[in-house]
């Protein structure tokens, strides 16, 4: 920011917290979506499940990218 480098933990701690929150929220949302009674046609219910199922992967993938970023920046700082 402004030509200055941002400390590694300043970026990785919020990203890690976001990954945890997204994993919990995504998992609960998809669980609810798969176990709730949806008043829609069979194809619409299936479509909702297919569209929202990848949401479960968002948090773990964000965590993976956060760890990779942290390791890469920590190595370059040394």
Topology record:
Elements: H1 8-35, H2 42-52, H3 55-77
How would you portray this structure in words?
The chain is mainly alpha-helical. The chain has one domain. The chain contains three helices and no strands. Helix 1 (8-35) runs antiparallel to helix 3 (55-77). It starts with 7 loop residues before the first helix and ends with a helix. The model has no long low-confidence stretch (mean pLDDT 89).
Labels describing this entry:
78 residues, mainly alpha, 3 helices, 79% helix, 0% strand, rod-shaped
Short description:
The chain has helices at 8-35, 42-52, 55-77. The protein is an all-alpha fold and 78 residues long.
- The stretches of 5 or more residues where confidence is low (pLDDT under 50) are none
What is the H/E order?
Answer: HHH
Give the biggest sheet: none
Structural class: mainly alpha
Which of globular, elongated, flat, extended, rod-shaped describes the shape? rod-shaped
Give the N-terminus to C-terminus distance in angstroms.
21 Å
Radius of gyration: 18 Å
Domain unit count: 1
* Integer average pLDDT: 89
Q: Count all strands and give the number.
A: 0
Quaternary class:
single chain
Q: Number of helical runs?
A: 3
Strand content: under 5%
Percent helix? over 70%
